[in-house]
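Retro notes (design track)

What went well: tokenization of the new backbones is finally stable.
What didn't: we kept losing track of which sequence belonged to which structure.
Fix going forward: every design gets posted as structure first, then sequence, in one message. First example under the new rule, 111 residues:
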């Protein structure tokens, strides 16, 4: 632990943040149309090279920034998390903000 000199409180040491690049299999599973379960929003996910992009009404095509956690990405103001079943199949994605968690989007039929 590290002591903050200005407050006298102890803090956990900082750790280096290293993003995880999605595997080829993961990249193949992301593209598609995702429909909001509880919100009237449709998201369009695409892949260009190794970049995962998301777009929707009012959201221009935006690159998802990988995080150290597989299937977890960030865009300004949101975390984007792809969820999988026990067999590794993609089931849905969620958007998370500091105030709202678990905004769920399910793949449209025929993705």
């Amino acid at each position: 632990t590290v002591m903050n000199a200005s407050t006298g409180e102890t803090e956990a040491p900082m750790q280096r943040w290293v993003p995880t690049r999605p595997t080829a299999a993961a990249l193949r599973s992301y593209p598609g149309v995702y429909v909001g379960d509880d919100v009237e929003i449709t998201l369009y996910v695409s892949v260009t090279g190794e970049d995962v992009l998301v777009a929707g009404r009012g959201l221009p095509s935006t690159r998802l920034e990988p995080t150290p956690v597989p299937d977890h990405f960030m865009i300004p103001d949101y975390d984007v998390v792809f969820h999988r079943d026990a067999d590794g199949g993609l089931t849905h994605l969620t958007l998370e903000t500091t105030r709202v968690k678990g905004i769920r989007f399910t793949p449209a039929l025929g993705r």
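Added context from the reviewer: The first helix runs from residue 24 to 29.
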